[in-house]
Write a structure and sequence with these properties.
- By secondary structure, the chain is an alpha+beta fold.
- It has one domain.
- 30% of the residues lie in helices and 30% in strands.
- Helix 1 (4-26) runs antiparallel to helix 2.
- The longest helix has 23 residues, at 4-26.
Length: 210
């Protein structure tokens, strides 16, 4: 069963979240992407300064709920009759508050790095998610970027790390395992609470290579 302390934490958090959701929905999309010049091989620059302005995400983080950031960058070639996908890059990171409120931790499933402030952690997250995808051929191109931010409220930290490593099955904790019915109840419980999950998208204009 869900632990009493964790259940109380999520319930308290959800009360503030329900009031915060409408404001977050009205805020402008915080994700932007631009293209560098020939000197940087037309590499894209993704900026996410506005992501943590979302009150619901900030409240989740401050209440000890880890956030998973998954960025997908697509490189498209403008062609007739249909545009062609010529390259992709995906990267994930997890951001969580350190125990006892002592800063923040950014990790990729293997390496953990701690930062003293949220601003420092955001700067590190921006650098960690910086794409390196570039065009390999000439022609007219554009980039399409998608960012998913998810709250992993009821998953154990070890499960989250395995997820970031790309392993299909979560780690099994010692002791009795929840039955299928209980797992279904947990999923419904998370949905009813409306724990924050955000999806952002941005694209560049068309640029010519060569």
């Amino acid at each position: 069963m869900i632990g009493t302390a964790r259940l109380a934490l999520v319930l308290l958090f959800s009360l503030g979240l329900l009031n915060a959701a409408p404001a977050a929905a009205q805020s402008p999309a915080p994700l932007t992407v631009s293209v560098g010049g020939a000197n940087v091989r037309w590499r894209p620059t993704v900026r996410m300064q506005g992501v943590m302005r979302d009150r619901a995400l900030r409240d989740a983080l401050q209440n000890g709920l880890p956030l998973r950031f998954h960025l997908r960058v697509e490189l498209w070639l403008k062609a007739e009759p249909f545009d062609q996908l010529v390259g992709t890059q995906e990267v994930s990171r997890a951001l969580l508050r350190a125990p006892l409120g002592e800063g923040y931790t950014l990790e990729d499933g293997r390496v953990q790095r701690r930062y003293s402030s949220l601003a420092a952690a955001q700067t590190a997250l921006q650098a960690a998610l910086a794409p390196t995808l570039v065009p390999r051929t000439g022609g007219r191109h554009y980039y399409l970027v998608r960012l998913n931010v998810e709250t992993l409220s009821l998953d154990e930290l070890d499960d989250m790390r395995r997820w970031l490593r790309g392993e299909s099955r979560p780690a099994r904790a010692p002791g009795p395992q929840p039955r299928g019915v209980e797992r279904g109840v947990r999923r419904i419980f998370v949905r009813l609470l409306g724990l924050p999950s955000r999806r952002y998208e941005a694209r560049t204009g068309i640029f010519r290579v060569g």
